[in-house]
């Protein structure tokens, strides 16, 4: 959670996190919450508290994707994934962040430019199931929403989908259906 406090954390950073949390949960103004989480992340980076900066950036990425600001979400997820790849204790988390970036890429239809990149990331991070869902199914290229649905069901049978993943996968399915089909 971004709002977890660390010793030595500046008061300004604490205030930005508190304000972001208020916008996030009480006022439900996600754009303003994003702005304050970004400010907190910048302060954390200045304090060389990269773990805390990444936590705030992940909030920004999460909400940016929900607001359909996919390019911003992609950049954040990739940045945090690369940051965590350097830390042996956090390396496993990179898998999740690359997966989320991949989902955002699918939505904006940049699949052809990114398949090789994410295939390499699959090998590096060993995200086999995630890559099977994203890369091995030709459902997107063939506009086959049934094949995509089957790939999602198979993925969900091993790892339950959370609300964010479900939303992103439904948006991908909508792009496969060309915005004309019903989401089942």
Automatic annotation (TrEMBL):
Q: Which PANTHER family match?
A: BETA-SOLUBLE NSF ATTACHMENT PROTEIN, SOLUBLE NSF ATTACHMENT PROTEIN SNAP
User: Which protein family is named in the record?
Assistant: Belongs to the SNAP family.
Q: Which N-terminal stretch is annotated as signal sequence?
A: none
The protein here is known as N-ethylmaleimide-sensitive factor attachment protein, beta b
Gene Ontology cellular component list = synaptobrevin 2-SNAP-25-syntaxin-1a complex; terminal bouton; vacuolar membrane
> GO terms for biological process?
intracellular protein transport; regulation of synaptic vesicle priming; SNARE complex disassembly; synaptic transmission, glutamatergic
Record keywords, A-Z = ER-Golgi transport, Protein transport, Transport
Determine if Transmembrane helix is one of this entry's keywords.
no
GO molecular function: any one? syntaxin binding
Domain of life assignment: Eukaryota
Record organism: Cynoglossus semilaevis (Tongue sole)
Q: Please tell me whether the keyword Transport is annotated for this protein.
A: yes
Gene3D superfamilies for the chain: Tetratricopeptide repeat domain
Pfam families cross-referenced by the UniProt entry: SNAP
């Amino acid at each position: 959670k971004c709002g977890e406090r660390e010793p030595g954390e500046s008061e300004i950073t604490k205030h930005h996190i508190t304000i972001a949390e208020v916008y996030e949960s009480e006022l439900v103004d996600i754009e303003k919450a994003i702005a304050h989480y970004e400010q907190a992340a910048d302060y954390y980076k200045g304090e060389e508290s990269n773990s805390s900066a990444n936590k705030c950036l992940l909030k920004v990425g999460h909400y940016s994707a929900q607001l359909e600001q996919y390019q911003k979400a992609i950049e954040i997820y990739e940045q945090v994934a690369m940051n965590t790849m350097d830390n042996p204790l956090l390396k496993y988390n990179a898998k999740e962040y690359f997966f989320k970036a991949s989902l955002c890429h699918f939505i904006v239809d940049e699949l052809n430019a990114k398949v090789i990149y994410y295939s390499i990331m699959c090998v590096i991070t060993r995200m086999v199931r995630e890559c099977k869902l994203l890369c091995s199914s030709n459902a997107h290229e063939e506009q086959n929403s049934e094949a995509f649905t089957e790939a999602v069901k198979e993925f969900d049978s091993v790892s339950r989908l959370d609300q964010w993943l479900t939303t992103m996968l439904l948006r991908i399915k909508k792009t496969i259906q060309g915005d004309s089909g019903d989401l089942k």
